[in-house]
Structure formats: C-alpha cells, structure tokens
C-alpha cells in the first residue's frame, strides 16, 4: 500500500507541475467543510473566487464529521475546533465565538432566563451526535461549564439554526452561522452577562505529505483574505 501511494503521489506531482505551468491556474479543486460553514461562509464568496480563477473547477463536499482526506481525495478541508490529526498541515483562518441565542417569539412565550439554572425549565436545542458541542459557554453554580441534555436534538448546526428561528427553543451556535439572524433581530442573545468568551479555531488543512497545488494555495490565500469579516462577532 505504501509503495502504491508513493507511485500515485509521483503521478499527481507530475500532473500538478504540468497544470501549474499555465499562466491561468487550472484543474479540479475538491474542498470539504461542515455543511453549516460551507453554506454560511464559503458559498457567499465562491462567485468572487470563480470570477478571479475561471480555470479552476470547484467541487464542494460537505460532512458534519471529519473525513479522511486521502480516502476521499480531498485537496483542502476546513476544520472547526481543535485539530488532533498530526498527519495534517494547518493554516489558521480565524476564530468564531459561541453564544446562546433564541428567537424573540420563543422568549415572549416562555420568558427570558435571568440565571443559568433557569435553563432547565426551557426547551434546549442541541446536537445528537457531536456531544462536545453541547457544552455551552455558561458557568454553573459549581464553577463548571454547562453541559446540556437537549430537549430537541439534531445532527447538524443548520437544522438547529432553523429550529431556533422557528421558535422551538434556546440554542448555542457559532457566530459565523448566526451573523445575519442577529443583525436582523430574528435571534437575540440569552444570558449575555453570564456568557464566557469561548471561540472555536478555524483552519484550512491538507495532508502533510501531499503535493500542494497552485490552486490549493490560491484558495487558501483567498479564504484568508475574505473570511475575517465573516467571522467577526457583529
């Protein structure tokens, strides 16, 4: 297997060298990210990237769970949270804070909690498969971070966002997902005076031993240029 991988890597390196000789970058670029990040952060700027580099054919792949970049033949992945895979090289793109939110309609019906302990009487929206995301940036009376048991659970952040917008409960999501609803007032902060500043690192990652193509470098440069304003808290 190792011998075959070396052969394939050599072939890919030769193909990349031929593509990079063109004045305009060309070829396929497969990018992987969580569905929510792809929808709210990457997709809004894709048109600008395509206009700038029309010869690059993009393939956008989404998974809520981390994928094997080699097995899935992914050129570049966007990872949110702490990186644990030492075989990956990472380029930091920024951070996104977590905050607790609800719709004004939900709060009008059920009241606005004033203390963390009051959340047990509310409908809490959380993750069904990624339990570490059910740790909210709130401190309990014992000094520990709040870990919720969801009243209504879903496997994706995008689903939880829609449920919160429909007034189904209180949710904790990253700022990059909720920028527009917060600006429009369709989601508002809950317990802001009790919320700690907890941020998730966002990295562009690729396999450490892979040949880094020109188009991969260009896409990372583009994201580093365009994403800071989208990851801001406002």
Can you characterise this structure?
This protein has 234 residues and is α/β, with parallel strands linked by helices. The chain is built from 6 helices and 11 strands. It has helices at residues 2-20, 35-52, 104-110, 157-165, 175-184, 214-226, and strands spanning 27-33, 56-62, 76-80, 88-102, 124-127, 135-139, 145-147, 152-154, 170-174, 188-189, 199-207. Strands 1, 2, 3, 4, 5, 8, 9, 10 and 11 form a 9-stranded mixed β-sheet that branches. A two-stranded antiparallel sheet has the order 6-7. A hairpin with a 5-residue loop joins strand 6 (135-139) and strand 7 (145-147). The longest helix is centred in the first third of the chain and has 19 residues, at 2-20. The protein is elongated and about 65 Å long. The N and C termini lie far apart (49 Å). 28% of the residues are buried. The model has no long low-confidence stretch (mean pLDDT 87).
Throw out a few tags for this protein.
single chain; 234 residues; alpha/beta; nine-stranded mixed sheet; two-stranded antiparallel ribbon; 6 helices; 32% helix; elongated
Task: Write a compact overview of the structure shown.
With 234 residues, the chain is an alpha/beta fold. The chain has helices spanning 2-20, 35-52, 104-110, 157-165, 175-184, 214-226; strands spanning 27-33, 56-62, 76-80, 88-102, 124-127, 135-139, 145-147, 152-154, 170-174, 188-189, 199-207. It is 32% helix and 28% strand.
């Amino acid at each position: 297997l190792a011998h075959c991988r070396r052969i394939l890597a050599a072939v890919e390196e030769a193909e990349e060298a031929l593509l990079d000789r063109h004045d305009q970058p060309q070829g396929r670029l497969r990018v992987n990210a969580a569905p929510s990040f792809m929808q709210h952060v990457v997709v809004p700027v894709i048109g600008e990237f395509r206009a700038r580099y029309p010869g690059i054919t993009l393939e956008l792949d989404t998974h809520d769970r981390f994928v094997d970049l080699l097995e899935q033949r992914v050129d570049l992945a966007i990872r949110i949270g702490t990186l644990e895979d030492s075989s990956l090289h990472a380029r930091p793109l920024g951070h996104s804070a977590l905050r607790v939110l609800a719709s004004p309609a939900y709060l009008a019906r059920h009241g606005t909690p004033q203390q963390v302990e009051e959340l047990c009487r509310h409908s809490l929206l959380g993750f069904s498969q990624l339990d570490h995301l059910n740790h909210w940036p709130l401190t309990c009376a014992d000094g520990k971070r709040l870990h919720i048991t969801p009243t209504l659970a879903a496997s994706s952040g995008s689903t939880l966002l829609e449920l919160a917008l429909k007034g189904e409960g209180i949710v904790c999501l990253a700022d990059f997902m909720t920028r527009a609803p917060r600006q429009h007032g369709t989601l508002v902060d809950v317990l802001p005076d009790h919320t700690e500043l907890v941020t998730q690192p966002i990295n562009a990652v690729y396999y450490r031993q892979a040949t880094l193509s020109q188009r991969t470098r260009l896409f990372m440069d583009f994201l580093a240029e365009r994403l800071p304003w989208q990851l801001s808290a406002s």
